[in-house]
Inverse folding.
């Protein structure tokens, strides 16, 4: 390992290229956090030069480089940036901005010195001129905007290349546009430099330009640490980055994979990794109190699907390394990427619900049921050789298990254990729908069991659903599934559109006292209802009127009393009588869920029970129970 201190000019003047490896994240420095402070440092050094003071170097930190062996005579010397790509990339933007600033000041004598720090000479001796001519070559995600910004001959050229980033007056847009970092950095440093050079308080433009160029080229220093043949770049990268908050676990995993990629790294990246750079995978997803990029949840799930062992997302990188080191045939980059891709397409279908595959349909059905504990099992099923029919049966069992337990008011706290156990069974034995249903049926105890038809029926008809056991998204999903089930082949739209925008309506409203009487015609005040509520668990000493009030209070949140309506209908008629609601349904509703309501002439506790029974018939077909 060799360590030396260099100025910016010394770092970039040799005929060499600094490459950002595959595993590095994209360029992320910005004006508020880094560029502004760097410009202040440059300006201070230029001011000192202008005033004739002694120029002491400003230390910018260290970079770690891994020299690459050169094969043959052609090509430039290459160094991989193990750590410090943000610094070196920013300095390239500073030098480019300085070129534009000097041209604006009509001071072009210094340009050859700066150009030598931006591009390599003698293109006729290069293997790939379009790449090797750059002093720094960024990672895949930054290359297009980097090339466009770095090769622009002027600010006007930049405006032509990035028209969406500029206003009609030629300034960068400040609202509604995410500028390419390369463009934004160059424009920022250029504007600061031009303003400083044109400040006439001390020295003319030529003198100030010389001071500025000297400050950039010779007054900024960086420690360059070059690794030797015996130094492990992987270990050094982890030591520098593994204990901080800057890199995600998947950044370290990407590094771990591609440091083993060898000469076919480009092909592996383009064909097997690049899909994981899409925005879908970087979106933050919350599970409980943990918030992680979706890619981290995927890697955790894929490893669990492959091994059956749970892996702590908080120690994902260490867990992934143990998994690879302990798995025969998985040490190479290609085999790891093939495994991740095998599960990746299934996981994307699962979490987006897009497509016709069984796992996509499963993802759509269970999205609201807090189903992440089932994901590893679902991936294993989807990646197996099972037929689509077998997969659909297994996914149907899982959905039924989740829905029935929710309707019955049973806890989901044990789901991680339940589905991890089922996953291990599927890995260790023959995978088929019949054995899976049998294993799920065998679960006992309130924490794990799959409710049978009798329990499901009782809780469906008598349980407090909303408010109560199901929140609004879950109840809308139940109604969507019911609506789809009860539509016939002759229905104009066999598959209903999304019902997420509809309101949940209590047909017999929660505040029923004004427009609704008891079965015998007796009116009830809100005070009487509130006084009766605490008496619902008494078995003696309750008069007949109070018993009728309690029966009504229990009926209101039951599923037989609930439906979906347009928010305008719901909010106009929330607490009105049944006849007004019935007329509104005739006028506005196309749902099969509401056809039976339109045919009723009265609505009370008995009608709620009858409708609950009708909906139950469809529910038993959708979510069949254990054998």
């Amino acid at each position: 390992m060799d360590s030396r201190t260099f100025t910016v000019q010394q770092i970039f003047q040799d005929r060499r290229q600094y490459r950002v490896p595959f595993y590095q994240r994209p360029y992320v420095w910005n004006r508020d956090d880094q560029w502004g402070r760097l410009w202040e440092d440059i300006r201070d050094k230029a001011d000192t030069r202008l005033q004739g003071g002694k120029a002491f170097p400003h230390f910018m930190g260290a970079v770690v480089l891994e020299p690459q062996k050169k094969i043959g005579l052609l090509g430039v010397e290459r160094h991989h940036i193990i750590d410090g790509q943000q610094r070196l990339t920013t300095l390239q933007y500073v030098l480019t901005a300085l070129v534009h600033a000097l041209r604006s000041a009509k001071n072009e004598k210094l340009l050859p010195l700066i150009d030598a720090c931006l591009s390599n000479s003698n293109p006729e001796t290069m293997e790939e001129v379009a790449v090797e001519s750059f002093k720094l070559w960024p990672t895949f995600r930054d290359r297009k905007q980097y090339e466009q910004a770095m090769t622009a001959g002027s600010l006007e050229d930049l405006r032509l290349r990035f028209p969406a980033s500029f206003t009609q007056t030629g300034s960068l847009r400040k609202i509604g546009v995410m500028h390419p970092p390369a463009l934004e950095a160059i424009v920022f440093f250029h504007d600061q430099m031009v303003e400083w050079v044109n400040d006439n308080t001390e020295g003319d433009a030529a003198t100030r330009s010389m001071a500025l160029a000297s400050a950039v080229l010779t007054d900024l220093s960086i420690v360059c640490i070059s690794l030797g043949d015996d130094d492990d770049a992987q270990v050094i990268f982890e030591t520098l980055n593994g204990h901080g908050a800057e890199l995600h676990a998947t950044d370290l995993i990407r590094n771990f994979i591609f440091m083993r990629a060898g000469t076919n790294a480009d092909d592996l990246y383009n064909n097997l990794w690049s899909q994981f750079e899409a925005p879908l995978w970087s979106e933050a997803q919350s599970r409980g109190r943990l918030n992680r990029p979706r890619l981290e949840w995927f890697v955790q799930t894929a490893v669990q699907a492959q091994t059956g062992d749970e892996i702590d997302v908080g120690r994902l990188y260490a867990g992934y390394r143990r998994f690879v080191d302990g798995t025969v045939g998985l040490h190479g980059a290609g085999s790891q990427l093939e495994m991740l891709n095998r599960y990746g397409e299934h996981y994307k279908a699962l979490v987006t619900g897009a497509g016709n595959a069984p796992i996509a349909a499963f993802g759509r059905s269970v999205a609201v049921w807090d189903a992440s504990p089932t994901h590893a099992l679902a991936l294993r099923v989807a990646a197996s050789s099972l037929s689509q029919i077998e997969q659909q049966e297994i996914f149907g069992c899982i959905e039924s298990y989740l829905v029935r337990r929710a309707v019955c008011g049973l806890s989901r706290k044990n789901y991680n254990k339940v589905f991890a156990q089922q996953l291990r069974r599927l890995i260790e034995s023959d995978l088929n729908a019949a054995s899976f249903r049998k294993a799920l049926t065998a679960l006992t105890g309130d924490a794990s069991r799959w409710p049978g038809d009798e329990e499901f029926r009782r809780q469906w008809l008598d349980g407090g659903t909303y408010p109560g056991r199901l929140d609004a998204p879950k109840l809308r999903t139940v109604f969507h599934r019911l609506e789809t089930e009860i539509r016939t082949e002759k229905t104009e739209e066999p598959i209903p559109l999304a019902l997420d925008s509809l309101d949940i309506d209590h047909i017999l409203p929660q505040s029923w006292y004004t427009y609704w009487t008891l079965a015998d015609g007796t009116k009830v005040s809100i005070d009487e209802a509130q006084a009766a509520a605490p008496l619902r668990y008494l078995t003696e000493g309750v008069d007949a009127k109070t018993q009728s009030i309690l029966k009504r209070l229990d009926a209101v949140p039951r599923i037989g009393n609930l439906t979906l309506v347009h928010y305008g209908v719901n909010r106009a008629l929330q607490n009105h009588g049944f006849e007004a609601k019935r007329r509104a349904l005739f006028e506005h509703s196309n749902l099969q869920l509401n056809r039976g309501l339109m045919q009723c002439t009265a609505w009370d506790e008995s009608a709620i029970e009858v409708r609950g029974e009708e909906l139950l018939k469809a529910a038993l077909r959708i979510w069949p129970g254990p054998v």
Summary: The chain has a mean pLDDT of 90.
